[in-house]
């Protein structure tokens, strides 16, 4: 690989990592699993080590990834809240030990569990909690004092405390609390948190402390950041002291004098991880003596005196009992393995997605096989292989008949998936209904999957148009529905009639048309009738609408039943017109890229302002970019803009451009 190729790949990796950092730290909604993210980070680090000239100061390898959210007041940490260097093999731990000993240190190691939560600083003055803040980028974090004060597990006063104490801990959500919250969210039709870590992060960053108070969060303290009025000389001494003050500390910490003993402890922790009541994402080895820590110091990102071991995903064997095939809203048949229950990464699982027909064929899967199952990122169960095939069993073959309606299931074009092409398929109708009511579409609050399923099963709703003829008497026949919940849902349905045209277009579930494409169509044509009448050539004239998308739009409006659906929706009072916000020409002809975290605007709000004022919001920097609007932790886009000589705007400079 040449240096130019390495630089291009590094740029791509930084973009992906930065995007997922925002999803993970700011939105608590990651797209990548942990092991996928770690693999990308390691690839980037290896490239930068091989080609030092491509390293940039903004690279995620050079700094703590989390950024302040922009929703809270900022706190500058007097003592930097550092991240930890990751290790994925025991040999890397042995190499860490070699570096320590090469520095002339005879180490005493402390091994403790790495809790998977949200890092937080607690500051006490004369034993009274005065401030709490998130790690942020390690130097600046968010002031979350009001929310942390609402957490019952966080002590508000400490008995016998020193004059001043700042401790660092991990705010987490216990498994039983998470399971209860997830069930409540699903029952309310709200998209549930993916895992306890995301739930903890989302709960701690609530604007209303009362919401945080009701989420059952807890905390483990794992470090003293700074202290006045008392002295400690080692990590174990500091944890024992914190425990004596009434703080909950790391649940397991032990001292070892050799790296091999420390590794055996890490193996033991790994063997016990399924018995824990909270999520963990590794184990940490730290030097115990503070004077030895000071001797080794830190890089600009990591302390040299500590390292975190990341466990590989836990894999277990079980027996395949059967394959269940479900039908999605676009007709795709999705196979799910059903197997003897196994306890995996904190929960009991008995089902896992099998992806598609090609995946099943590659495994040579047979009912009765001994299969290998893991949770990708400790979240999503998946089958990864077959240990032993069942004797005298035939390879499983996907049905070419829809399990919901009995219509043929076929491969369209070069698709790997089988698809039911019957537009009246009941399973597709249910998935379409759920999509129509979801937040990004018509946003009918209280009409989640559970409610939609009941409406379909009771025969009250067959298509989206039926939603608008529901009565309170009908809703009261649904499980757990009372007068108030029925009234609330009817009000939400009525409110959805006023949604702009783009929301309806997206809600219709047109294949290959997402929310942004729906907005392009609505703004360009102005009405549902005009979109319906457009030909492929007219659709392709819109920047951002390609030929495949255009074909999907034409096919949707030509499909039997679409005209009747739209007629019924319009008769019910559903808006069919684009009521776009009035635009200005202040940014006419400009292409602006938003990157980093802004103080007062979210990324989507900034991009909306760009388009509302005649500009184009782009996701990538090129020579055609007019400006880059950069917030904190701007990353690779800012670096590229600087290399191309593209002007960089602060948030205030951007807002000044919009003033009259």
Explain what you see.
- There is one protein chain.
- By secondary structure, the protein is an alpha+beta fold.
- The protein has 5 domains: 3-62, Orthogonal Bundle (Helix Hairpins); 74-309, D-amino Acid Aminotransferase, Chain A, domain 1 (2-Layer Sandwich); 315-419, Beta Barrel (OB fold (Dihydrolipoamide Acetyltransferase, E2P)); 426-571, 5' to 3' exonuclease, C-terminal subdomain (DNA polymerase, domain 1), CATH 1.10.150.20; 591-657, Rossmann fold.
- It has 24 helices and 22 strands.
- α1 (3-26) packs antiparallel against α2 (34-50), α12 (426-437) crosses α13 and α16 (501-507) packs across α17.
- Mean pLDDT is 86; it is low at 64-70.
């Amino acid at each position: 690989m040449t240096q130019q190729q390495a630089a291009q790949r590094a740029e791509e990796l930084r973009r992906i990592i930065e995007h997922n950092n925002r999803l993970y730290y700011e939105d608590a909604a990651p797209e990548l699993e942990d092991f996928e993210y770690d693999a990308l980070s390691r690839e980037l680090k290896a490239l930068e080590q091989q080609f030092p000239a491509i390293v940039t100061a903004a690279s995620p390898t050079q700094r703590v990834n989390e950024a302040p959210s922009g929703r809270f007041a900022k706190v500058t940490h007097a003592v930097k809240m550092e991240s930890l260097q990751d290790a994925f093999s025991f040999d890397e731990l042995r190499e860490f030990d070699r570096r320590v000993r090469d520095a002339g240190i005879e180490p005493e190691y402390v091994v403790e569990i790495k809790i998977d939560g949200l890092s937080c600083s607690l500051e006490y003055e004369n034993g009274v909690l005065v401030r709490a803040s998130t790690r942020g980028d390690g130097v600046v974090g968010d002031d979350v004092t009001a929310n942390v004060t609402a957490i019952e597990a966080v002590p508000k006063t400490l008995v016998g405390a020193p004059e001043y104490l700042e401790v660092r801990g991990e705010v987490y959500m216990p498994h039983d609390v998470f399971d209860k919250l997830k069930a409540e969210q699903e029952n309310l039709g709200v998209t549930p948190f993916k895992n306890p870590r995301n739930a903890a992060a989302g709960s701690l960053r609530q604007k209303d402390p009362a919401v945080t108070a009701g989420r059952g969060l807890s905390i483990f303290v794992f470090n003293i950041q700074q202290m006045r009025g008392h002295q400690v000389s080692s990590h174990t001494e500091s944890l024992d002291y914190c425990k004596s003050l009434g703080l909950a500390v790391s649940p397991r910490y032990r001292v070892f004098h050799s790296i091999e003993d420390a590794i055996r402890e890490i193996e033991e922790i790994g063997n016990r991880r399924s018995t824990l009541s909270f999520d963990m994402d590794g184990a940490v080895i730290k030097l115990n003596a503070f004077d030895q820590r000071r001797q080794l110091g830190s890089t600009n990102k990591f302390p040299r005196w500590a390292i975190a071991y990341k466990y590989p995903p836990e894999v277990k064997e079980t027996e395949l009992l059967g394959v269940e095939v479900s039908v999605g809203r676009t007709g795709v048949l999705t196979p799910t393995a059903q197997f003897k229950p196994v306890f995996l990464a904190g929960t009991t699982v008995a089902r896992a997605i099998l992806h598609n027909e090609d995946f099943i064929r590659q495994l040579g899967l047979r009912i009765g096989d001994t299969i290998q199952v893991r949770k990708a990122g400790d979240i999503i169960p998946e089958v990864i292989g077959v240990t032993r095939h069942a004797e005298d069993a035939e390879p499983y073959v996907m049905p070419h008949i829809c399990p919901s309606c009995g219509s043929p299931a076929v491969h369209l074009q070069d698709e790997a998936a089988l698809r039911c092409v019957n537009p009246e398929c009941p399973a597709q109708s249910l998935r379409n209904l759920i999509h129509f009511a979801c937040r990004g579409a018509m946003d009918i609050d209280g009409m989640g999957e559970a409610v939609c399923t009941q409406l379909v099963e009771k025969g009250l709703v067959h298509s989206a148009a039926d939603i608008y003829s529901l009565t309170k008497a009908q809703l009261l026949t649904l499980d757990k529905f009372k007068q108030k919940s029925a009234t609330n849902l009817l009000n939400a349905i009525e409110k959805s009639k006023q949604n702009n045209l783009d929301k309806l277009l997206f809600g219709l579930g047109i294949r290959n048309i997402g929310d942004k494409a729906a907005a392009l169509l609505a703004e360009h044509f102005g009405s549902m009738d005009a979109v319906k009448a457009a030909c492929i050539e007219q659709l392709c004239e819109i920047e951002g609408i390609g030929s495949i998308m255009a074909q999907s739009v034409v096919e949707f409006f030509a499909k039997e039943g679409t005209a009747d659906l739209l007629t019924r929706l319009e008769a019910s009072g559903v808006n069919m017109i684009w009521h776009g916000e009035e635009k200005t020409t202040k940014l006419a002809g400009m292409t602006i890229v938003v990157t980093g975290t802004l103080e007062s605007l979210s990324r989507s709000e900034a991009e909306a302002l760009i388009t509302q004022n005649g500009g184009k919001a782009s996701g990538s920097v090129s020579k055609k970019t007019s400006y880059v609007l950069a917030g904190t932790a701007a990353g690779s886009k800012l670096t590229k803009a600087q290399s191309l000589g593209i002007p960089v705007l602060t948030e205030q400079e951007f807002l000044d451009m919009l003033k009259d």
